[in-house]
């Protein structure tokens, strides 16, 4: 069909049809994305008889076109005349299931599963089951990979005799010569088991055991996720015993990838086998904490708090400590393992409580916080709130505050940033007197830090810190530091004062704003450096709502005139930000 000589009302549709064969890839993609327009214009009958066969002819196209085609066909049931004709959409989608590109196959399978929901039982038997049979016997392995994802959709709708036939086909694929087909068969095993009746699951369990012993680790690696799915389906003793045998085999598997999956999924495994977790799953997990492969030890260390939550007792902690201490020994050369442990160890504090944390865990915290690797120290500091909410102020002061103060001056800026982010929680748990005595002296250092992210984070932290300690505290401990920044010869540190003013405005009273913040902003709006002046304009914009609420006089008499003065500035960027602030604030200068 050509666009030439057609009715003017149908001309746009004719153009789209022409573009489906155009040399330009983007035009073809655009045309495919408007399939619904073409189908609506053609009507359901011509869509079924002309458009769908045409689409089957252009399957040999770029992957972007094919992905867009699958997406459009997924929503095409209404376009072909409703559910009674939805099976006609399967023609192009079957061809897409055969292509090599994974993304195209996944989109086409997603479309087929959606269409299957619209099918009647007869349609499923006549069309979907026939499609499954064709794909399952296809010479090309990508077709056999694709068909694995369709079994659960068909099994949910057919009768027992047809289910038996489909399962025979599926079991044949589970023993396919190609490892990638067996892998996909293992990947969908859980979904198939979920749609089967309890009496039909016996064969599934047998196939599952075979796949769990497959010669390829890419297949065996899926055994743990299937254990979790199957474990939820049946809680009988015999069924659970079989699954536990597979879990144990995975924990001893020669492939580190399989053992990794066991360690990574230890929490859902404990949930599935809750009654036997302490005697069966946890000992296997402890062994993985000492695994020979770094990757396995790393993920196992990251899951330590999740496992501890199932048994938050002194007895369990005593059995866990040797494994944790082993990870701290000098022979543990991997910084990734130590960083993983540091990221999860503090999460044990809320699990075990104050006394057990002090008795057993505090020494591990102190050792990790002094680790030579910055990533290890950073991982620990990032979770400091878990500890500060559990242990007493005295313990926190004696054991960790010296380390925290030291890290606040560390040469690695990310560590300084992590300490700043922990400041609000430290203020909450230390209290005003202790926090001021130990940590407030660091503010001046951080306000003049060479790294902007550190200065910006500190300014942002003033808001939550002042919420904890009050405005009077900030008058004594923050305002003098900001005044020192205002007088500093480096303009970057003068900008730090403006950033801090924005943050403090959110918690300040009208008197505080009038006395301390407005004079600061007005003074810096006349700074010799344009960067400071346009930051003053941005600060006024940020302060606008708070000032309108608690200090409308300062806004009208000081800040708005300041913006209009900046509007006449010689620097174009200063004028730009001043105008932007005026526009967004919607204010006028009288």
How would you describe this structure in keywords?
40 helices, mainly alpha, 590 residues, 75% helix, single chain
Structure description:
It is a single chain. It is built from 40 helices and no strands. 75% of the residues lie in helices and 0% in strands. It has 590 residues and is mainly α. The chain is flat, with a radius of gyration of 33 Å.
Can you give the mean pLDDT?
88
Helix count, DSSP H or I runs of 4 or more residues: 40
Report the strand count.
0
Categorize the overall geometry: flat
Q: Major β-sheet, in short?
A: none
Helix content: over 70%
In short:
This protein is mainly α. The protein has helices at 11-19, 25-32, 35-42, 44-57, 63-74, 90-96, 102-118, 121-136, 141-147, 151-155, 160-174, 179-187, 189-195, 201-212, 217-220, 223-233, 237-251, 256-264, 266-272, 277-289, 294-302, 304-308, 314-328, 335-345, 348-369, 374-381, 384-388, 393-407, 413-421, 423-430, 432-439, 442-447, 452-469, 471-477, 479-486, 491-505, 510-524, 530-550, 552-567, 572-585.
Task: Explain the layout of strands and helices.
Blueprint: H1 11-19, H2 25-32, H3 35-42, H4 44-57, H5 63-74, H6 90-96, H7 102-118, H8 121-136, H9 141-147, H10 151-155, H11 160-174, H12 179-187, H13 189-195, H14 201-212, H15 217-220, H16 223-233, H17 237-251, H18 256-264, H19 266-272, H20 277-289, H21 294-302, H22 304-308, H23 314-328, H24 335-345, H25 348-369, H26 374-381, H27 384-388, H28 393-407, H29 413-421, H30 423-430, H31 432-439, H32 442-447, H33 452-469, H34 471-477, H35 479-486, H36 491-505, H37 510-524, H38 530-550, H39 552-567, H40 572-585
């Amino acid at each position: 069909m050509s666009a030439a000589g057609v009715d003017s009302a149908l001309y746009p549709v004719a153009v789209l049809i022409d573009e489906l064969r155009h040399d330009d890839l983007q035009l073809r993609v655009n045309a495919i994305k408007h399939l619904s327009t073409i189908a609506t214009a053609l009507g359901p009958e011509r869509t079924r008889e002309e458009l769908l066969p045409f689409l089957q002819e252009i399957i040999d196209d770029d992957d972007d076109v094919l992905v867009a085609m699958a997406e459009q066909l997924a929503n095409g049931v209404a376009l072909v005349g409703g559910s009674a004709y939805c099976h006609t959409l399967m023609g192009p989608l079957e061809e897409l299931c055969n292509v090599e590109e994974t993304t195209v196959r996944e989109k086409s399978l997603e479309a087929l599963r959606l269409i299957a929901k619209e099918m009647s039982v007869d349609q499923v038997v006549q069309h979907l089951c026939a499609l499954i049979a064709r794909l399952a016997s296809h010479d090309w392995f990508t077709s056999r990979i694709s068909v694995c994802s369709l079994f659960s959709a068909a099994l949910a709708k057919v009768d027992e005799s047809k289910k038996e036939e489909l399962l025979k086909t599926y079991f044949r694929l589970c023993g396919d010569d190609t490892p990638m087909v067996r892998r996909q068969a293992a990947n969908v095993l859980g979904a198939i088991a979920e749609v089967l009746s309890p009496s039909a699951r016996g064969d599934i369990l047998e196939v599952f055991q075979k796949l769990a012993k497959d010669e390829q680790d890419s297949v065996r690696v899926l055994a743990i996720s299937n254990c979790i799915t199957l474990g939820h389906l049946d809680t009988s003793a015999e069924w659970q015993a079989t699954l536990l045998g597979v879990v144990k085999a995975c924990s001893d598997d020669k492939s580190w990838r399989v053992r990794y999956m066991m360690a990574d999924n230890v929490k859902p495994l404990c949930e599935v086998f809750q009654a036997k977790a302490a005697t069966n799953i946890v000992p296997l997990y402890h062994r993985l904490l000492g695994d020979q492969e770094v990757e396995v030890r790393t993920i196992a260390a990251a899951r330590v708090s999740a496992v501890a939550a199932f048994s938050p007792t002194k007895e369990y902690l005593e059995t866990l400590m040797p494994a944790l201490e082993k990870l701290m020994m000098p022979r543990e050369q991997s910084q990734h393992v130590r960083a993983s442990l540091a990221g999860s160890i503090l999460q044990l504090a809320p699990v075990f409580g104050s006394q057990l944390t002090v008795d057993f865990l505090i020494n591990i915290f102190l050792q990790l916080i002094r680790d030579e690797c910055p990533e290890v120290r950073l991982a620990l500091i990032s979770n400091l709130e878990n500890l500060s909410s559990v242990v007493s102020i005295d313990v926190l002061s004696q054991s960790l505050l010296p380390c925290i103060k030291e890290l606040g001056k560390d040469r690695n800026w990310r560590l300084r940033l992590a300490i700043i982010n922990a400041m609000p929680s430290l203020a909450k748990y230390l209290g005003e007197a202790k926090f001021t005595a130990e940590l407030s002296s660091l503010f001046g250092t951080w306000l003049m830090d060479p790294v902007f992210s550190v200065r910006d984070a500190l300014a942002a932290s003033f808001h939550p810190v002042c919420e904890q300690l009050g405005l009077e505290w900030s008058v004594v401990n923050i305002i003098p530091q900001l005044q020192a920044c205002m007088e500093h010869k480096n303009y970057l540190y003068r900008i730090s004062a403006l950033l801090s003013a924005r943050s403090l405005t959110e918690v300040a009273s009208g008197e505080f704003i009038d006395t301390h913040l407005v004079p600061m902003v007005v003074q810096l709006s006349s700074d010799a450096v344009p960067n400071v002046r346009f930051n003053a304009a941005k600060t006024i914009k940020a302060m606008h709502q708070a000032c309108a609420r608690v200090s409308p006089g300062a806004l009208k008499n000081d800040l708005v005139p300041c913006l209009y003065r900046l509007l006449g500035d010689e620097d174009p960027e200063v004028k730009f930000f001043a105008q932007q602030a005026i526009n967004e604030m919607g204010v006028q200068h009288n």
